[in-house]
Each structure stands twice: as structure tokens, then as C-alpha cells.
Amino acid sequence: MEEKPGAERGPFTAAELGAIAHLYRGEVYRSTLWRQRLDTTTNWSVVTLGVALSISFSSPQASPLPLVLVGVLILFFLMLEARRYRYFNVWRARCRWLETHIYAPMLHDGDLHLEEGWQRTLAEDYWRPRYHVSMWVSIGRRIRRNYFWILLIQSLAYLGKLIVHPEPLIDFADFVARAAVGPVPGWAMLGLGMLYILTWGCVALLSWRDDQRRASQRRDWSSMG
Fold this sequence. Notes:
mainly alpha
């Protein structure tokens, strides 16, 4: 007989619990693997920024252009990491769901039914897998967790290079002139820099607000995703 929506499933058999234990191990493995891949892209961003800093500050006559160009690589790594995070978030949510609905109740009082219909929610996620967060939310989360500091160091290093090299800054007009790159005037470069900072700052802020909205709309503390 087909189970009705919302109906509570009977107790698991020993064989079913064994299968769920193996399922949990598999989800933990995938979650760990994708978590390591997130660390890889962050490391690439840090290394490339370090190379750009070394080149730009190697001498007073060195150009600040590498600090601008490295921003393209950082954004590429950020997009790649955000895509990986969306996968990681699926495995992490499933692990957390199993922990809160099987292992935590088992350790507490042996009751395997923390809330009604939780098995169906997990089954639906396997039947129709989907991302739990959008790409923009994922980008914002990675900025808030890691890339805020990378982007901050890049911006401060670029401004510091313009201020101290090739000699200490005298006036603001000189600062704008130093920012020029080839035919692109200094004011345009500084304007693009401000747009660069504001864009990713707004993405981080909007993702934080979306996380707050999602948290407020959850029907229970253990909602998946």
C-alpha cells in the first residue's frame, strides 16, 4: 500500500538501519571530499594574490597592474568555489538531516521519529536532487567566509602601492594620475575599483539577508538545506 503524504513510517528493521548507516558514511565521504575542494580554490586565490603582491612591491618602479589583473583570477576562483559549494551544501544537508533524525534521537532516548514525515523529505531529496541555494547566495557565502579578506587585502595593497610608490604621495591629483593604466585614465581605474568592491560587498550582504529570510521561514530548526 502506498504511504500517504505526512504519514509516519514504522520503525526501521536492523537491516534497514545498517543500510542507512552505510548511506550516512557515503554522504559524509562526499561532504568531506567537496569540502577539501573548497579549500583548494581558496588556496589558489591566496597564492595568486601573494604572487601579485611580490611583483608589485618588488621595487618602487614596479607597476600596480598585477594587483588589478589578479582580481580576474580571484573572481574566477570565487565562481568555481561557489559552484563547488552548491554541491557540498547538498551532501552536508543530507548528513545533518540523518544526524538530527536518527543518530541524535538514538543517543537521546532511542526514539527514531523526531518529527513527522522526515523520511519522506529525505527520500524526495534523493528522488529529485536539487541545489539548496542559488549561485548568488553561494557566492555571497564564500565571500563572507573567505573571500572578504582576500578582496580586502587586494584592495588595500593596491591603494598602498599607489600611495607609497614610486615615492610618498603628495596630493590627490598625483594619486589619480598614478592609477592610470595605459590609455585608461586614473579616475576610470579608481571608479572600476570602487564598483568592484561595492558589487561583491552587495552580493555578500544580499546573501546574508537571504539566509536570514530562509531561517525565519523554516517551520522547524532541522529543515534541510
